[in-house]
Amino acid sequence: MFHLSARRALALARAALLPPVDLPPQAERAMRAQHDVQAEKLLPLLTPLFGLVVLLFSLWDWQLDPQRAGTALLVRVAAVLLAGAGYWPNRLGWGVTTRCTVIYFCHAGAIIVCAWLLRPGLPYAMGAIAASLFSMSVVTLRLRSFLAIVAAPSLLFVLLAAQQLALADFAACLVQYLFALLLAASVMLLFRRFHQRAFLLEQQLLHMSHHDSLTGACNRLYLEQVAERELALAHRHGRSLAVAMLDIDHFKLVNDNYGHDTGDRVLQELVRCCQGALREIDHFGRLGGEEFVCVLPETDRAEALLCAERLRASLASLRMATPQGPLRFTVSIGVAVYGPGHPDWPALLKAADEAMYRAKNDGRNCVRLAGEPPKQAAATPPAAGAGAVLQST
User: Fold this and answer.
1) Mean pLDDT of 234-263
2) Residue 241 contacts by C-beta under 8 Å, 6 or more apart in sequence?
3) Which long-range contacts (CB under 8 A, 24 or more apart) does 6-13 make?
4) Within a 10 A sphere around the Cβ of 47, how many other Cβ atoms?
5) How confident is the model at residue 355 (pLDDT cuts 50, 70, 90)?
6) pLDDT at position 125
7) What is the structure's pLDDT at 141?
């Protein structure tokens, strides 16, 4: 039986030592935070279960050693009461790992101390002691945290076993305990691998549901959700906020003259350029076709116009290589600023859209602010260079 369990443990250890899923540091922190939240929700639910299991061992105590069973019961009750400090958040600001450490030390420590008090002693409690290790395999995703949680009870076990048992019995118990510890650590590492893969799949599905599959920009639904949230924050804290709408000039000519594959590349290059020029707090999304929107939190009118002009100039300077020659394209941008005239997202978006069409009417490849008087249209010369996009009438 021992050899069969050893083979299983070795198989688990080998699987656990497979190359881990490569998560970026930020994703790793997000995964651990998500797991901590789940573990924190479980702790209060497990209060009666863990306490009941520890107390039920008293029935076994009375059968083994009736004379010391009463003392063991007092130890178990005290341990269950002390463990209660770790089940709920407290003023000490304990994290989930610290609370799990307290809970495990109290419960596992009670099992070990009571087995030491009773006769015939620790060897007959090895099953319960080993089983307690596996309860910690699912509460942490790091080997360091797992070892930190089980360190104190393990040291207590070694000290009491060395004091009570003969050398041969002590060696046998120590081997069994180390075997259980190895198996529990392997289960924890396997659980970590599965959790990493599930987290990656969840993040991929979430990204697909929030972003445009062609360009990687936010899709319209997610952009509206983000914009509504930013507007609520701007209203609550009295912050400024601006929206810029971009539309590619003569995009139909790109598709007609260069093909839809090149048109898709133009959309992708536009998103790449704009995302590289915007801040981390800004949001960039695709409304549909060749229309895109920037949501600019904490941005007033002057800053929004500067940002829009920077985007326009950056896009106008792009050169894309195509079989027909280098391709240039421009955009027209409309800017609207959150305020009394644009109190919500639909009104703000409509104002930016109207300003963008004014930019089209004013000759394209320019920026217009919502509420400004219309300017006289100026003819924009065709872009120079072989394969340039020609202006249409």
Assistant:
1) 93
2) 230, 231, 234, 295, 296, 297, 298, 299, 337, 338
3) 6/179, 8/183, 9/179, 9/182, 9/183, 9/186, 12/183, 12/186, 12/187, 12/190, 13/182, 13/186
4) 16
5) very high
6) 85
7) 85
